[in-house]
Amino acid sequence: MALALQETYQHPTQASRVRINVYEEPPMPNPPGIDTPTTGGGFLVTEDRIGTTTVIATLGFFDRKEDAMARARRRADELKAQRYQPASAAA
């Protein structure tokens, strides 16, 4: 899987960071001798909650990049409504 988008958000008063990721999974051929349909690939959207441990949640798997990016944008808007702000690149 290739990383298509990664954004990190940090809460101003809590030691809480959230990273939103969009991964692109390329189409994969069937293994030899397997007659199942070919995996068409797609885009996986995840959220990493970073603290003492990192908890990863799946936000969805989409056929189209536009749909995956829209889901990532909606989650970013939800975080901003909870006072999260984009983290600086040095953080």
Provide tags for this entry:
alpha+beta; elongated; 1 helix; 42% strand; 19% helix; 91 residues; 5 strands; 5-stranded antiparallel β-sheet
Task: Describe the protein in words.
The protein is α+β, with helices and mostly antiparallel strands and 91 residues long. The chain has one domain (2-86). The chain is 19% helix and 42% strand. The protein contains one helix and five strands. A five-stranded antiparallel β-sheet has the order 4-3-2-1-5, with helices on one face. The two termini are 25 Å apart. The model has no long low-confidence stretch (mean pLDDT 89).
Furnish the topology, listing elements before pairings.
Blueprint: E1 2-10, E2 17-25, E3 42-50, E4 54-62, H1 65-81, E5 85-86
Antiparallel strand pairs: 1-2, 1-5, 2-3, 3-4
Brief synopsis:
The chain is α+β, with helices and mostly antiparallel strands. The chain is 19% helix and 42% strand. The protein has one domain.
